C-alpha cells in the first residue's frame, strides 16, 4: 500500500505546481499515520517496568509508557492511542471494559503480587501494630500511592483498615502518583516507611522489607491486561507473549506470582 500511495502522490503532484503544497500535506499526513501505526504502544502499570521492559526488548516496534493504573485507564478512556493495556487493578480494567475501551474477549489476568512495608536498608523489622509503626515513623510519614486511585495505595488502605490501623495513620500518609514514587521517597530517606509491592522492594538496595501484609488483609493483587479496539495483529502478538510461557517466565524472574485463582 505504501508504494501505491507514493505513486499516487507522484501522479497527483505532476498535475501542476499550484496544487503541489496541498498534495504534499495530504501525503505527509497519510504516511505519518501509517508510520505511527507501525508501532505498538503499551500502557503499563509502573510496578511492571522491569519485566515489561525485558519483554518489549524482544519486539523492536513496541513502545511502553508507564504510570499509575488509574492514570493510564483515564488516559485510554479519553482517547489515548494505546494498543495494549497492562494494569495492576481489576477495577480499573472493568472501568475500561464497561466503557468499551478494550476488547472484552482479550481481558485476562497475567500475574499477582504481595504487599509489603519497607524502610531504609538499615531498618529493623516493624510489627504491624500501632505502637510498632509509630515508633518506626518517628514523626515521619508513610509513603503510599494515592489511596483513591493508585492500586498499591488502594491495597494499602484496605490492609490498614483490616488491621485496625487506618484511623490512626490516615493523616500520616505521603500519597504520591504511583508506587515507584513511594519507593523512591523511602530510598532517598524522605520517608521512614512505605507501602509497596513485594516486587518493588527487590529493585532497590536502599530499602528492605520490614513487614509483609497478610494476603487476607487486602483484595488479591491482580495484574490484568487487554487489547484496545484499535489494536492490530502486532499488538495481539505482544499480548500473547505476555501471557505465554516466555512472558510468564520473565514475570516470575522479576518476583511476580502467577495469576490468582478466582
TrEMBL record:
GO molecular function term, any single one: metal ion binding
InterPro entries: ModA, ModA/WtpA
A GO CC term assigned to this protein in UniProt: outer membrane-bounded periplasmic space
UniProt entry keywords in alphabetical sequence: Metal-binding, Molybdenum, Signal
UniProt keyword annotation of DNA damage present: no
Domain of life (superkingdom): Bacteria
Protein's name according to its UniProt entry: Molybdate transport system substrate-binding protein
Organism listed in the record: Yoonia maritima
Amino acid at each position: 500500500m505504501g508504494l501505491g500511495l507514493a505513486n499516487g502522490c507522484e501522479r497527483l503532484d505532476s498535475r501542476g505546481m499550484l496544487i503541489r503544497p496541498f498534495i504534499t500535506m495530504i501525503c505527509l499526513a497519510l504516511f505519518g499515520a501509517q508510520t505511527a501505526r507501525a508501532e505498538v504502544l503499551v500502557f503499563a502499570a509502573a510496578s511492571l517496568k522491569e519485566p515489561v521492559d525485558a519483554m518489549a526488548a524482544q519486539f523492536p516496534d513496541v513502545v511502553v509508557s508507564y504510570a499509575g493504573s488509574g492514570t493510564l485507564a483515564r488516559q485510554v478512556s479519553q482517547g489515548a492511542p494505546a494498543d495494549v493495556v497492562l494494569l495492576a487493578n481489576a477495577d480499573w480494567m472493568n472501568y475500561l471494559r464497561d466503557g468499551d475501551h478494550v476488547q472484552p474477549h482479550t481481558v485476562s489476568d497475567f500475574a499477582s503480587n504481595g504487599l509489603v512495608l519497607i524502610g531504609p536498608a538499615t531498618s529493623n523489622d516493624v510489627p504491624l501494630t500501632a505502637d510498632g509503626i509509630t515508633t518506626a515513623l518517628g514523626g515521619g510519614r508513610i509513603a503510599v500511592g494515592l489511596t483513591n486511585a493508585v492500586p498499591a495505595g488502594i491495597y494499602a488502605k484496605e490492609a490498614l483498615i483490616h488491621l485496625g490501623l487506618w484511623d490512626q495513620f490516615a493523616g500520616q500518609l505521603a500519597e504520591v502518583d504511583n508506587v515507584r514514587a513511594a519507593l523512591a521517597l523511602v530510598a532517598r530517606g524522605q520517608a521512614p516507611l512505605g507501602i509497596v509491592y513485594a516486587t518493588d522492594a527487590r529493585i532497590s538496595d536502599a530499602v528492605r522489607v520490614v513487614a509483609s501484609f497478610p494476603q487476607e488483609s487486602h483484595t488479591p493483587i491482580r495484574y490484568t491486561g487487554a487489547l484496545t479496539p484499535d489494536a492490530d495483529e502486532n499488538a495481539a502478538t505482544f499480548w500473547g507473549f505476555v501471557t505465554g510461557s516466555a512472558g510468564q517466565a520473565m514475570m516470575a524472574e522479576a518476583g511476580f506470582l502467577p495469576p490468582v485463582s478466582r
